[in-house]
Structure formats: structure tokens, C-alpha cells
Design brief:
- This protein has helices spanning 3-9, 35-42, 57-70, 81-90, 107-119, 161-170, 183-186, 223-226, 254-267, 273-284, 286-305, 324-330, 347-356, 386-391, 408-420, and strands at residues 74-78, 98-102, 123-127, 143-149, 174-178, 196-200, 214-218, 312-314, 339-343, 361-362, 372-374, 398-402.
- It is of the alpha/beta class.
- It has two domains: 3-281, Aspartate Aminotransferase, domain 2 (3-Layer(aba) Sandwich); 287-420, Aspartate Aminotransferase, domain 1, CATH 3.90.1150.
- The strands form two sheets. Strands 1-7-6-5-4-2-3 form a seven-stranded mixed β-sheet, with helices on both faces.
- The radius of gyration is 22 Å and the shape is globular.
């Protein structure tokens, strides 16, 4: 089925009441038929609801539907995009291991990988997303994950997914891709051999800035890569915390199974049923919205490229952009989402422009139906040094825009008056 049809129907079989809308199962726990039923659920002899920290019928629909959109085998919903990233890495790595990350990452992802994970004993090493060959000099026997974004935020670069996956597979290392900005409507990394995708569902998935949540999806047949892979012994040895379960021998998608039975169980960063329901509503219109976001962003980028005060525009839908070829290769019909950025000469000039806008809201979010403007160097990437800002593609004069669904004429006119003020 097409993605738009899957977004409306996948993962939901109508309940006994025949409800067209997915119900909100706002409950913490579930009654078992008897002691044997409870024991069977806990031993995985039967699959079903145990406790909402592990699974929930509303969240189950969200997970199944999103996995279908990504073309994956299974998904795990989490309480935020950052927890989805953490789960993806923590599910593969432990103290003494390292991960290889693109320098061009969202600011929160940079701090999580470079600083927070360091306190857990996991080292992050960084490569330029435009130079995947740098990965070869960074991996070793303790490398567990190669992590990058399909469309980077806020530098707006498009990774060469095939090149990175080829290097990862050469060394039998898992690839994790943050596909938040592109969404599975525009880009499907799993189809290019990526092992796991992660998303902040708080962005385009909900589409109106209504809820915080995340999700990770594993590709089909990932068992083949994990089974007997010495890098991932914990997937092939009995798990003492779950009565000797060996994840690659159960017959279920192993990455998500371990994330559920170990990380959700013990860390509890779970999506609430109500938030899962909101994400389901957003998914129904996701394909329609992503086309409109992309069309508005391209038109705005073309205007900005023609303005004399603008030094550079970062949007891969522009034929002049260095990422154009990759966008045409990896993005559906070349549509490149609603995120763009542009650079002016100085910090002071950027500040003046941001403050002069009237229709755009100064907000550190993306993917909303309303247009958003942000100055990353003073907000999302404030913790970085000048050298680090330059390295990840966020100079002081950079302005990021999340192009909403307003009239493109109004969006262009507001930016024009801000630039000319």
C-alpha cells in the first residue's frame, strides 16, 4: 500500500465497538485471566499487555503504523526524541565502547553523545558528514554505532547514506539514522540498508507542537547482522535479567525486543497513551503536510538566495546547493522538508533580522504548522565553542527557519521586511 494509505490504516484492527478512531487506552495496568496467563505473558509464551511502561494498545498502534511507514520490522515509542536516541545507542553500546557520529548534528544530540554518554563510559568520535571516508580512521573493535542524520539540523546537509552504510557493513557495525526532519514520507533510510532509525515525534509527526515523544524503528532481518556478531555479544548470550533470554533466538525483531524488555522496563522513558494518540492523529495528514512544507520551503529558499543581504542559503532543493544530488537520490521526488537556514554577515545582523519578523515565532522547535525562526548559535548550539560551531555548520550569522503551512506570499513578505528593516 502507498504511504498515505498506511498512515490511515496500518496497525489498527477495530475493537469490539467498531470505533473508527483509535481509542485512547489511558491505563497503567491490565488484568490477567489467571496466574497461568500472567506467567505466559512474562515468559513471552503469549504476547499481550502487561503494564503500560512496557506496552499499551494505543501506543502499539502508533508503533506498528510508524514501523510500516519506515518499512521496518518493529518500533519502540519513547517519551522524547532524545530518549529514542539514547535507547538506540544504549541498546548497542556499554562502558568502554565508542560510537562514531557525524559532526553535523542537532545541538541536543551533540551534547548527549559528546558529554552525557561520556559519563556512562561511552566515547563519541566525530566525522564530517560530507567525508564519510573519515569513518575508517575512527572505528575499532569497540565501535558499536555509526550515528548521523538523514537531513541535518540546522546545517541542512543530506548524508550520503549508501556510502556510510557500506563502511558500517564492512566492519559489521550498526547504523542509526535520525530521520526526524525528513520523516519516512520523504526519506526511508531503512530501504538503503540503515539498521535503525530514530525520530522526535514532537516535530513533524504531531505537526502542531502538541506533544513530546520519540520513536525508534529497526529494519527487517536485522537478526542476520546481530546473530553471532562479536560486537554485540549481549544479543547472543543469555540475559540474566530476563531468565536467560537470548534475543537473536526468539524469532522477534531483536533490537526492539531488547529495548522494550531491558531499557523501557528499567529506564521507563515511555510514551503516554494520550501522546501516542496525538501522534496517530498527526500521521494521518503527514504525507499531505510534508509536501506543503517542502513547497513553501523551496519557494522561500529561492527568494532568500536572490536577496543581496543573504550570504548563503542552505536548502537541498536548490539546484545550486551542494546537497542537491544527494537530495534527488534519497528524497522522494526531491522534496526536502520544511527546514532551511540562511547566513548573514554577523551575529548582530542575524539578531536584528530574527527580532524584526512578525509572522514567524521565535521558538526552538521545528515541524510545526506555524512557521518558526531560530538563531541556533545563541540557543540550541549555545554550549559550543566558536570552532565547534563552525565545524558543525552553525556560524554565528546563521538563521534557521521551520517553514510552516501559511501562505507562501505572507512568509516571503515577512522575511523581506525583516531583511530590509
Amino acid at each position: 500500500m502507498d504511504l498515505q494509505t498506511l498512515a490511515l490504516h496500518a496497525g489498527y484492527e477495530k475493537d469490539s465497538q467498531g470505533t473508527m478512531a483509535v481509542p485512547i487506552y489511558q491505563t497503567t495496568a491490565y488484568e490477567f485471566r489467571d496466574v497461568e496467563h500472567a506467567a505466559n505473558l512474562f515468559s513471552l509464551k503469549e504476547l499481550g499487555n502487561i503494564y503500560t511502561r512496557l506496552n499499551n494498545p494505543t501506543t502499539d498502534v502508533f508503533e506498528k503504523r510508524f514501523a510500516e511507514l519506515e518499512g521496518g520490522a518493529a518500533a519502540i515509542a519513547t517519551s522524547s526524541g532524545m530518549s529514542a536516541i539514547f535507547f538506540a545507542i544504549a541498546n548497542a553500546a556499554e562502558a568502554g565502547d565508542n560510537i562514531v557520529c557525524a559532526k553535523q548534528l542537532y545541538g541536543g544530540s551533540l551534547t548527549q553523545t559528546a558529554h552525557t554518554l561520556k559519563r556512562f563510559g561511552i566515547e563519541a568520535r566525530f566525522f564530517n558528514v560530507h567525508k564519510p571516508e573519515e569513518i575508517e580512521g575512527l572505528v575499532d573493535g569497540k565501535t558499536k554505532v555509526i550515528f548521523f542524520e538523514s537531513l541535518t539540523n540546522p546545517s541542512i546537509d543530506v548524508a550520503d547514506i549508501d556510502a556510510i552504510v557500506a563502511i558500517a557493513n564492512k566492519h559489521n557495525i550498526l547504523t542509526v539514522v535520525d530521520n526526524t526532519v525528513a520523516t519516512p514520507i520523504l526519506c526511508r533510510p531503512l530501504a538503503h540498508g540503515v539498521d535503525v532509525t530514530v525520530h522526535s515525534a514532537s516535530k513533524y509527526t504531531t505537526g502542531q507542537g502538541l506533544a513530546i515523544g520519540g520513536i525508534l524503528v529497526e529494519r527487517k532481518n536485522l537478526t542476520e547482522k546481530l546473530k553471532n556478531n562479536p560486537r554485540y555479544a549481549h544479543f547472543n548470550e543469555p540475559d540474566a535479567s530476563y531468565h536467560g533470554l537470548v534475543y537473536t533466538e526468539v524469532g522477534l525483531p531483536p533490537f526492539c525486543l531488547r529495548a522494550r524488555l531491558s531499557l523501557l522496563r528499567d529506564l521507563g522513558a515511555v510514551s503516554s497513551p494520550f501522546n501516542s494518540w496525538l501522534f496517530i492523529q498527526g500521521m494521518e495528514t503527514l504525507s499531505l503536510r510534508m509536501r506543503e512544507h517542502s513547497a513553501n520551503a523551496l519557494a522561500l529558499a529561492e527568494f532568500l538566495e536572490s536577496h543581496p543581504r543573504v550570504k548563503k542559503v542552505n536548502y537541498p532543493g536548490l539546484k545550486s546547493n551542494a546537497n542537491y544530488a544527494n537530495a534527488q537520490k534519497y528524497f522522494d521526488k526531491g522534496a526536502c522538508s520544511g527546514l532551511l537556514s540562511f547566513e548573514v554577515a554577523t551575529l548582530e545582523e542575524a539578531t536584528k533580522i530574527v527580532n524584526a519578523t512578525k509572522l514567524y515565532s521565535l521558538v526552538v522547535n521545528i515541524g510545526d504548522s506555524k512557521s518558526i525562526i531560530t538563531h541556533p548559535a545563541s540557543t540550541t548550539h549555545q554550549q559550543l565553542t566558536t570552532e565547534e560551531l563552525e565545524a558543525c555548520g552553525v556560524p554565528a550569522g546563521l538563521i534557521r527557519i521551520s517553514c510552516g503551512l501559511e501562505s507562501i506570499n505572507d512568509l516571503i513578505n515577512d522575511i523581506r521586511q525583516a531583511l530590509d528593516a
